Amino acid sequence: MKNPKRYLVTSALPYTNGPQHLGHLAGAYLPADIFVRYLRLMGRDVLYVCGSDEHGAAITIQAKKEGITPRDIIDKYHKLHEETFQKMGISFDIYHRTSDPLHHKTAQDFFTKLLERGDQFDEKVSEQYYDADFDQFLADRYISGECPRCGHAEAFGDQCENCGSDLSPTELVNPKSTLSGKTPILRETKHWFFKLDKHEEWLKEWIKDGSVDGAVHHNAKDWKKHVVGQCLSWLDNGLHARSITRDLSWGIKVPLKEADGKVLYVWFDAPIGYISATKQWCLDNGKPEDEWKKYWQDEDSELIHFIGKDNIVFHCIVFPAMLKAHGDFLLPKNVPANQFLNFEGQKFSKSRGWGIQQFEYLEAFKDFPNKEDAMRYALIRNMPENRDADFKWDDFVDFHDNELANNLGNFVNRVVVLTNKYYEGKVPTPTTDGWKAPMATALELVKKIQAAIESYSFKNAIQHLMELSSFGNTYLQDISPWKLWKENPDANEITECMFVSNQIVCLLSTCAHPFIPFTGDKIRTLLNQDVVKNGDLATVISQLEAGEPLIAGGHKIGEPSLLFAKINDKKDTSRLAMIEAQKTKLSNIVASEETKSFEAVKAETSFDDFTKMDIRTGTILAAEKIPKANKLLKIEVDLGFEKRTVVSGIAKHFKPEEIIGKKVLVLANLAPRELRGVESQGMILMAENEKGELSFVSPPDEFGNGFTVR
Predict the structure, then answer these.
(1) CB of 426 closer than 8 Å to CB of 505
(2) What does the alpha-carbon distance between residue 701 and residue 99 come to, in Å, rounded to a whole number?
(3) End-to-end CA distance of the chain
(4) In 3-state terms, what secondary structure has residue 680?
(5) d(CA 391, CA 379)
(6) pLDDT (tens digit per residue) in 687-697
(7) Which CATH superfamily does the domain covering 607-709 fall into?
(8) Measuring CA to CA, which residue among 562, 555, 561, 563 is closest to residue 424?
(9) Distance CA 284, CA 37 (A)
(10) Residue 658 in contact with residue 625, Cβ under 8 Å?
C-alpha cells in the first residue's frame, strides 16, 4: 500500500428521517472505522468525516406524517445518530450536519463555481407534476406509481426500490401525489441540469483503467468487481443531464434571483457535506483557514469513500463528475462499497419491525457485557463485502462463545491468571533468546492482518486476528506450564512460555483495536498498560522486527477479569434470554403476518373496464436473464395462436430453468413497452404475499394455451 502524506476517509451521510439499523452499520461505518483506526495505529495522517444528511423531500414527508416541522425531525435523528455511533465506537474526527450554515454556503459556492464555468449546466423549462390541492410542485419522492421497467406498483419519482432503476417522475405509470393521493397535473417550471453526459468518456476510462486524461490515477484491479460492474452498466447505457434543483421549501436555496422557491437537489448537496465537514473540523481545531484544501486538493492526499451498494452511482459517477467539473478537487482513490446485509433471511423492514435498529440493540442488550464489541465482531465476521450477507442471532451466539470467549477471552484470561499465580503478576524474564522464534511467527500473522485491512478485506483481517489468538492458545497448551510447574517451578520453559504469552496478549491488544476497540482497551488494562495511541502498531512491528520485547520482564500486570461472559451459560441464563427475546419478537411478527387482515380493496372499477383486459392462458417455452438487469427475465410464452416475448421482474425469485414449462396467465392486450432494449409484449400475472414472495397464477395443466380468462 503506497503511503500518501494524508488520507481523507468518508462514510455515507446517514439520512435523518429515521434510526439506523445493523445493515447500515455493517455497510458504511464499521468498515471505515476499522480502516481509519488501523491507519492511526500506523501513524498515518488521516481525517475521518461524516455527518447527517438533513435535506430532501423525505424529511418533509416524515414531518407532515408526524405533524411537526422538518427541523424537529432532523434534530431528533441527528442526535440519535451521533450518540449511537459514539456508543458503537465509530471514531469520526467530526460528525457534522448539512443544515449547518457553513454547509449551506459551501454547497451554494460549489453550485456558483460550476455555473460560472459556463459549460456545466443547462437551464431548461420543463413540465413537472403539480398537486393542485396542495398548490405546490411535487418533488420526486412526492410522486409514486408503477415502475415502467419492472412493474413494481410503488416506485417513486426518482427511483424504483424494487429493481433499482433510476427514474424521472414522468416515466411512472399511473402516477399519484403522495400528498393528496390524486393524479397530479403537469405544469411548466425552470430547473438547472448538470451535464453529466459531458463527463461520460473520461469517467469510463477512469472506472475501467484507473486513468484520467491519460495519467494513471489508481489501479482499477483494486476496486471491487461489483462496484466497477455497476458503474460500467450505467456508463454503457449512456449518461444524461441530471436536474440538480427542485421546487421545494426545505433545503439549500439556489443562489440565484430567478430561482425563488427552489433548492439544490439533496443528492447534489449531500456529498458536498464531506467538504463542509472537513472545513468545520479545521475551524474546530484551530487550523489555518485553507488547511482543508490539503485533504481535498493536494496530490499527496487520498480520498476514500465507504458506502453501501445503493450509493455506488452517486459516489463513483455523479460526485466525481462534480469534483472534476469544479476543477480543483481530487477524485476518490477507492470506493470499497459493501453489498447489503439481510436479517434472518429477509430484508430489514422498519414498517414490519423486521430487524433491529442500532439504538434498540444497545438498549435491549444494556446488561450484556461488552455488547458493543460483541456486535462489531459478529458484523465484521459476516460483513457483506462482495455479496449480500445475512445476520442471524444463532451466528451471533456462535461467534461470541466460540471465537471471542473460547479463543480470545480464554487465552488472555489464562495468561493473566497464570502470571499472577506463578510470578505475583510480574512478567518473568527469560534467560535465552528462544522466545524470539514464536514472536517471529506472531509477526507474520500481524502482517497478514495488515495486508487484509489495506485491501479492504476486513473479514479476512479479523480471522487473521483470531489466528493470532489461536497461535497463542496452541503455544500455551503445547508447553502446558501448569504441568511443568508441578515438577520444577524454576524451569526456563515456564519462564519463556509465560514471557512469550504476555507478549502475544500485548500484541493482541494492539491488533484488536481496529476491530473491537473496547476489548483492546480492556486487555491493556489487564496488562496494566496505557490504552493504544496513534502510531503504536508501527512501533510494535518495529520492535518485533528488531527482536525486542513488547513488555519488559518485571512489568507488573493487573488482576484477571473476564473479557467475554459466554451466552450459553447454564449457571447464568440472562444473556441467552436476551437472544431468545429477539427470536420471539421475530416469531411473533411471522405469526401476526400469517393471520393479519388483507390490504384494503382498491378503488371501485367498472365491469366495462374489466372486460377490456384480455387475459389468456399460456405456457413458458424459454427464459433467460437480461444482461445488466439483475431483476429482469426475458420470457418466451406460447399463447396457442402465437408466441410472445414478455419481460418480467422476477429474476430475484425464480431461476430461468425453473419456470420453463410453467402454465401462466398473460395480460395479452397490454400495450408493448421497451425494457432494457427488449420489447415486452404483455404481462405475466403473479400473486405476492406479505413477505414479498411471488407465485405464478396458473391455470390447471389440462387447460391449453390461448384460452380466455373471464
Answers:
(1) no
(2) 61
(3) 67
(4) strand
(5) 8
(6) 887 667 888 99
(7) Nucleic acid-binding proteins (2.40.50.140)
(8) 555
(9) 21
(10) no
Confidence of residue 1 (pLDDT cuts 50, 70, 90): very low
Helices 517-526, 492-511: axis angle to 10 degrees equals 150
Q: Is the dihedral of CA 394, 399, 404, 410 positive or negative?
A: positive
Give me Rg for the CA atoms of the chain. Answer: 29
Q: Virtual CA dihedral for 515, 381, 46, 11, nearest 10 degrees?
A: -120
Which of 153, 118, 461, 95 minimizes the C-alpha distance to 284?
95
Which of 21, 15, 128 is closest to 73 using CA atoms? 15
Grid cell, residue 524, equals: 491493556
Residue type for position 493: E
Kindly indicate the confidence band of residue 293, based on its pLDDT and cuts at 50, 70 and 90. very high
* Residue carrying C-alpha cell 504469552: 501
Indicate the angle between helix axes 536-545 and 492-511, nearest 10 degrees. 150
Question: What's the number of CA atoms in the CB half-sphere (13 Å) around residue 269?
Answer: 30
Positive/negative CA dihedral, 365, 368, 373, 375: negative
Residue pLDDT, tens place only, 300-328: 999 999 999 999 999 999 999 999 999 98
Confidence of residue 250 (pLDDT cuts 50, 70, 90): very high
From 3.90.320.10, 2.30.40.10, 3.40.50.300, 1.10.730.10, which CATH number describes the 365-545 domain? 1.10.730.10
Angle between helices 458-479 and 492-511 (to 10 degrees): 170
Question: Cα–chain-centroid distance for residue 557?
Answer: 40
Q: What phi and psi values does residue 246 have, to the nearest 5 degrees?
A: -140, 150
Q: d(Cα 156, Cα 58) in Å, to the nearest integer? A: 11
Q: For residue 598, what pLDDT is reported?
A: 55
Of all helices (H) and strands (E), which one includes residue 263? strand 262-264
In the chain, helix, strand, coil percent, each to 5?
Answer: 45, 20, 35
The CA distance from 681 to 685, in Å, is 13
Q: Rounded CA gap, 449 and 258, in Å? A: 56
Q: Extract the C-alpha cell encoding 218.
A: 489508481
Q: Domain residue spans in the chain?
A: 1-120+195-341, 365-545, 607-709
Q: Give dist(CA 685, CA 704) in Å, integer.
A: 17
Helix runs in 480-613, H state only:
481-487, 492-511, 517-526, 536-545, 574-595, 607-611
CATH architecture of the domain with range 1-120+195-341: 3-Layer(aba) Sandwich (3.40)
Grid coordinates representing 585 are 419478537
Same fold, 365-545 and 607-709: no
State if pTM tops 0.85.
Answer: no
Other Cβ atoms less than 10 A from the Cβ of 256: the count is 15
